[in-house]
Amino acid sequence: MKIKDYINNKINYHAQMYPEDVNRIINVCRNQSIDITVEEAIEIWETYSDDFSARWMSLPSYDNDLFDIIIEYAEKLWKENI
Predict the structure, then answer these.
(1) How far is residue 32's CA from residue 67's CA, in Å, rounded to a whole number?
(2) Could you tell me if 26 and 38 are in contact, meaning their C-beta atoms sit under 8 angstroms apart?
(3) Where does residue 28 rank: exposed (0-12), middle (13-18), buried (19+ CB within 10 A)?
(4) What is the spatial distance between Cα 4 and Cα 11, in angstroms, rounded to a whole number?
C-alpha cells in the first residue's frame, strides 16, 4: 500500500466513524470565520487524541473550549511543517 492510500484510508475511516465530530470541528471554525477542510479537522483532532494515547477523544461540550484546542493544535502542526 502506498503512503498516500494509507493516509486517505485513515481520513475516510475517521470521517465515517465520527462524522458529527468532524462537522462540529468545521462548524466551530466557520463560526470564527476560519476555513478548515475535513482533512485538516481530522489531522488536528487525531493529533490531539494521540497526545492522550487515544484513537479519538470526545469533543469538549463547549464550542469555546473546542475552538481553543483546535487553534492550539493547528499552530503546533503547522509550526512542525514549516
Answers:
(1) 9
(2) yes
(3) buried
(4) 11
Q: Around 45, how many Cα atoms within 13 Å sit in the side-chain half-sphere?
A: 27
* Residue labelled with grid coordinates 465520527: 18
First to last CA, the chain: 27
Q: pTM for this structure? A: 0.87
CA pair distance 2, 25, nearest whole angstrom: 28
Whole-angstrom Cα distance, residue 76 to residue 78?
Answer: 6
The contacts of residue 63 (CB under 8 Å, 6+ apart) are 28, 31
Nine-digit cell at 19?
462524522
The model's pLDDT over 44-61, given as tens digits with 9 standing for 90+, comes to: 999 999 999 999 999 999
